[in-house]
Amino acid sequence: MSGLFRFIITLLAFLLIAAQDARAARIKDIAYIEGVRPNQLIGYGLVVGLDGTGDKSSAVYTMQSIANMLNKLGLKFDANSIKVKNTAAVLVTAELQAFSKPGSSIDVVVSSLGDAKSLQGGTLISTPLRGHDGAVYAVAQGPLALAGFAAGSETARVAKNHQTAAKIPGGAIIEKEVPLSIAGRQELYLSLRSPDFTTAERVASAVNENFGIKGVATAVDPGSVRLNLPEGFDNPVAFISRVERIDVSPDAVTKIVVNERTGTVVMGENVRLSTVAVSHGDISIEIKTQYAISQPEPFSPRGETVVVPFDEVEVEEQKSRLVVLPESVTLGEVVRALNLIGVTPRDLVAILQAIKAAGALQATLEII
Known about the structure:
By secondary structure, the chain is α+β, with helices and mostly antiparallel strands. 23% of the residues lie in helices and 37% in strands.
């Protein structure tokens, strides 16, 4: 029995510690070293080997691209004389991570640019991928991978998933490294993914406390924290690794996000209300159309069957309840109080908008 008691005490202590650190996050998850970010690459290419599902002759740029490719291979062709359906013009996109070395591979996404019906079974031919500076950083090539299928004829067709976009895992080989170096730097900057004054100050305080030295970290503005390498850290990599593992409790503006299309409402834990009374009720109107059949008498010399429609209208007004929400209630109390009214998610959207308009909601209401 004593062993079970000790186990329960240990479990409760663990749960208390976990509850205290529930809001903590690693600096690695809420910030990044300035300049260490992915870079967007884009290229224009051709996908060949399609089963008659490629671009039509109306896609002039596709035919011109085929002619240019064949001319480079030593074959002279006029773009107007080319009529094929097994080739499609595509845009190729990829993300080049910082410090990626030449020779390594990255995934690419291939998307149809013309009127191709499907890229299934196609192969991307060699396509240079360029950065925003116009330099070629990678070259993509290989067979396309589509999740799904398409089958049928011109009059009946069945397709699963999107057939005009595909992916090539590891389909691009890096040819050039993005120029970025942190070797020998004594000063670095942390960029917060969600800029906030309080979070920036907490990050600086947590770093200084972890190293036990004042001035290692300084909050410059809501979006950045300056880091100075302390004595004993000649290698910035080891210093950054230690900083990224420090736990910080990020702060954020209290916000309520409302999606009117789906009726989804997401509220933060710090939502507060001033004293306000809420009454909500719905009026339901139902219209039914029925038909009466009128037939002539038996053995009538002349007669005609007549269909006579008539409508029934029913109006039902639900009983509304007046609920008073006191000042500075918690999120749980707000939800319980609104549940007493019996609101649906869509009703909650209208109620929150009305409370915000009344000036009783101490939170940002964001409608998406």
